[in-house]
Design goal:
The protein is α+β, with helices and mostly antiparallel strands. The protein has one domain. It has three helices and five strands, in the order αααβββββ. Strands 1, 2, 3, 4 and 5 form a five-stranded antiparallel beta sheet that branches. β4 and β5 form a beta hairpin. The chain is globular. 23% of the residues are buried. The model has no long low-confidence stretch (mean pLDDT 93). This is DUF7668 domain-containing protein. InterPro entries: DUF7668 (IPR056085). It comes from Aneurinibacillus migulanus (Bacillus migulanus).
């Protein structure tokens, strides 16, 4: 699996953990911090229950111009419908882009 595929896979795993309300696991893995946890909880309160998107969901992947890593963006699903809320994740990599050094939720926004 190349580095871009790894970033996409990690994003999918985060979505599964959000659906399963595995906030403790996400925090232990430094994927979620206090601020992003509050964003997620506020979104859930407002939108409803986070549900799994279809297997063919689109995850946009962006490579940073400064070569520090990648960002992903995908729409979240609530109550089995695509919402206007987007999940933004970041993957920091080593200089050679052969290893992900840190992966985390950056933001949730409409």
């Amino acid at each position: 699996m190349n580095i871009k595929e790894q970033v996409i896979q990690l994003t999918k795993e985060v979505i599964i953990d959000l659906v399963d309300c595995n906030y403790t696991k996400l925090k232990e893995n430094n994927v979620l911090n206090e601020d992003t946890e509050q964003l997620v909880k506020t979104a859930v309160e407002y939108e409803g229950k986070i549900t799994l998107p279809p297997d063919n969901m689109e995850i946009d992947l962006y490579e940073y111009n400064d070569n520090s890593g990648f960002g992903t963006e995908t729409y979240l699903w609530f109550d089995d419908e695509e919402s206007q809320l987007r999940l933004f994740c970041e993957a920091k990599t080593n200089a050679e882009k052969t290893e992900i050094t840190h992966f985390y939720i950056d933001d949730i926004d409409a």
